[in-house]
Amino acid sequence: MSVFNYEKDADSIVTITMDMTGPVNAMNAEFREAMLDTVEKLEAETELTGVVFASAKKTFFAGGDLNELLKVEEGQEQEFFDLVQGIKDRLRRLEKLPVPVVAAINGAGLGGGFELCLSCNHRIALNHRSVQLGLPEVTLGLLPGAGGIVRMVNLLGLQNALPYLLEGKRISPDKALAAGMIHETVESPDELLPRAKAWILENKDNEEAAVQPWDREGHKIPGGASYTPKLGQVQVAAPAMLAQKTRGLLPAPEEILDCAVEAAHLDFETALRVESRGMVKLALTKEAKNMITAFFFQLNKVNGGASRPKDVEPQQTKKLGILGAGMMGQGIAYVAAKAGIEVVLKDISLEAAEKGKAYSEMLLDKAISRGRSTEEKKAQLLGLIKPTASDEDLQGCDLIVEAVFENIELKHKITQSTEQYLAEGGVWASNTSTLPITQLAEAASKPEDFIGIHFFSPVDKMPLIEIITGEKTSDTTLAKAFDFARQLNKTPIVVNDSMGFYTSRTYGTFIDEGVRMLTEGLDPVRIDSLGKALGMPVGPLAVHDETSIELTRKFLETWDSMGMKDRWGEQEAMRDVVQKLVVDRGRGGRHHGGGFYEYHEDGSKNIWPGLKDLYFNAGASIPDQDIKDRLLFRQVIEALKCLQTNVLRSVADGNIGSIMGIGAPFWTGGFLQFVNTYGLENFQSRCAELAAEYGERFECPQIVAEKIAAQETFV
Ligand code: NAD
Q1: Is the CB of 432 inside a 6 Å radius of any atom of ligand 1?
Q2: Residue 554 Cα, ligand 1 centroid: separation in angstroms?
């Protein structure tokens, strides 16, 4: 039996129910065969009123086969082009049937799934939040290659189609309806098929219903063809806007823009071929390989629980205690209450704790003013947060997270004074950004119930949580932390203990290299600009100002006092900058009235002119590429060291953690994946060059040589 179930009813309407092997329907070899058989059978029908495409899965149709796409290599261009054209040919034949074809969209229809919908004459979707529609290929470094660009441009016009194509937005059925991407919605799954069939019967005698808009005589693309003066302006502005966003680092949006402009200009069939060529080009890029690997395979692996102990039952958190209602504590309270968890928010005074709760109120008011929340939801969420100054209120918490100052004595003290309030089997977690968990756990009576749950700031926006196991942390405790992160809808990576763990330590090398170049006399504007040109969200000096140089001063002080001076390499440049900026001149960073930059009331900023007198040396000059590589390679080398020494337990955690927690450029697919497509041997030789020129911190970690010898990559 085919994976496309073919059923004809008394009205001569054929319903194709897609039920492919595996959990989802996808555009793979099985699809190509099933679709060809189906189209041929439909074309051969002598009595046919219409066709309905439906799905037997929870989702309607998932999209392209990413495993297949990852394997496309140089030399296979023609073969892959023919394959893409083959899919298009089947969809084209479907939309050219003399009867109406309806997509009955019961679940997510994204990417190839939505392209299949676009090849149907009429699209009806179930109005439910599980139904997401759109063309997110761009987020994986690809383009919608099954006619998605060409059909969207013909359907909506160039200008209106571009945001969906370039941003890869996933939208709900009601938004898709308003945008003209679908035609109807129904409120329950049971209505879907009857409505699809009813529409076919209603339109039995309407010849236009079986003809796609772009195949109708006199079809004009909404908004006009690309050579019209109005769209001329779009074409001039769009590349500039795109370059500003992608910094020229992502080939996919550029290719999509090209194909979309062509689609608004060329005849339909030629435009489809241009789109296929674009698809072939992108599938071969290292950016697509990196992004598919990280954003699809590894992200699914991480969120799917690859690092969670398998044999432990789900560990739901019901009552959460938070110690410290400062910047982090207040954010954790908000995300936990949003997930429906009861929260006790404790600080040294009730006033401080209430101030922490007020942060949630502020976020909710903002959400209400944007139409994203309601007074009712606000009251419900705020009702879950109890601010307090009393330890006794922590009674019965099944998880306590401390977010007090980064001070080991204080953290030890509060562990000892409050762990008695934990419910039976409860877990104690620290949100420390750097202090070793094993050492923190020494104060706990049950170190097996102690763990690190490292949030990122701002907590409500940052998607990552870094979970750190101490030497004695038990599997049940790890499972509890992991499940808590998933309850909050965050992505949890799991790492082993080390000072600075994985993310803080690796991020530290980025700001350290920035500071080194500054003290070498390079222009600070150039350092930050090249950091951005590399694809980091901001340059190393700008981000250091945000996280605060004052905090760096405190860290250095803490580590020195713990006997960990220069644990991860010498930090002379950092000490010099901390002394001259923070200690001597009170320039602790953005929230301390300025640091490397001066900040103005209108939101603008400029480099603090004094920096030039302190460090600038007009004679210091190194190539741009070296600046970029120094900033990137330091971080990649640190990530490799974390893998080599088992701080990182998996490559997937390393890549996802670097992208979501440190700001690794998207095009790299994460710091470890970067090495795979840079080439392991190339990476080794570039490290050797940088080490010879700039110091031994660029020496290539041994693990790279080991992988080369084993003919492996970082997977
Ligand atoms: P913060 O200074 O904003 O807040 C600390 C809060 O702890 C203050 O409100 C303080 O009154 C309270 N506090 C102090 N002693 C207390 C006690 N005995 N009982 C209850 N409350 C007490 O600090 P923060 O930025 O929120 O950082 C808190 C922790 O989170 C630190 O360990 C820090 O390293 C870590 N962290 C910070 C960030 C960040 O970006 N700020 C990111 C990740 C982790």
Answers
A1: yes
A2: 13
Q: What is the DSSP string of 373-441?
A: --HHHHHHHHHTEEEES-GGGGTTEEEEEE---S-HHHHHHHHHHHGGGEEEEEEEEE--SSS-HHHHG
Which two three-digit tokens encode residue 240? 């500039």
- Kindly compute the dihedral angle of the four CA atoms of residues 40, 43, 48, 49, in this order, to the nearest 10 degrees: 100
Helix (H) / strand (E) containing 240 = helix 229-246
Same domain, 490 and 527: no
pTM for the model stands at 0.94
Q: What would the pLDDT profile of 565-584 be if each residue is shown by its tens digit?
A: 887 788 999 999 999 999 99
Domain limit, last residue, from 498, 524, 541 = 498
pLDDT in tens, 360-389: 999 999 999 999 999 999 999 999 999 999
Q: What is the CATH number of the domain that holds 185?
A: 3.90.226.10
| C-beta 552 within 6 A of ligand 1 | no
Q: Quick check: is 658 in a domain? A: no
**Same domain for 344 and 469?**
yes
The CB of 455 under 6 Å from ligand 1? The reply is yes
Looking at the structure, do residues 399 and 527 belong to the same domain, yes or no?
no
Residue 469 and residue 346 share a domain: yes
- Are the C-beta atoms of residues 115 and 65 closer than 8 Å to each other? no
Any ligand 1 atom below 6 A from CB of 408 = no
Residues 513-528 have a mean pLDDT of 98
Q: Which structural domain range is residue 342 located in?
A: 319-498
Assigned domain for 301 exists: no
What are the structure tokens assigned to 214, written together? Answer: 């772009």
217 shares its domain with 365: no
pLDDT above 90: residue 107: yes
Final residue of a structural domain among 436, 469, 498: 498
Nearest CA to ligand 1 atom 10: 324
In a domain, residue 610? The reply is: yes
Number of residues assigned to the chain? 715
Atom 31 of ligand 1: nearest residue by CA position: 406
Count of structural domains within the chain: 3
Helix (H, G, I), strand (E, B) or coil at 150: helix
Could you report the per-residue pLDDT of 201-253, keeping only the tens digit for each? 999 999 999 999 999 999 999 998 878 888 888 888 899 999 989 999 999 99
Cβ of 346 below 6 Å from ligand 1: yes
Cβ–Cβ under 8 Å, residues 582 and 614 = no
Closest C-alpha to ligand 1, atom 25: 327
Ligand 1 center to residue 108 CA distance, Å? 41
Question: Other C-beta atoms within 10 Å of 431: how many?
Answer: 23
Q: Is residue 587 part of a domain?
A: yes
Would you say the CB of residue 457 lies under 6 angstroms from ligand 1? Answer: yes
CATH code of the domain covering residue 366: 3.40.50.720
Cβ of 433 below 6 Å from ligand 1:
yes
**How much distance in Å is there from the Cα of 353 to the middle of ligand 1?**
12
The answer to whether residues 521 and 399 belong to one domain is: no
Ligand 1 atom having least distance to the Cα of 432:
32
**Mutation pick for ligand 1 pocket among 322, 328, 413, 418 (CB with most ligand atoms within 8 Å):** 328
Q: Which atom of ligand 1 is nearest to the CA of 356?
A: 9
Q: Are residues 22 and 144 in the same domain?
A: yes
Assess whether 166 and 271 both reside in one domain: yes
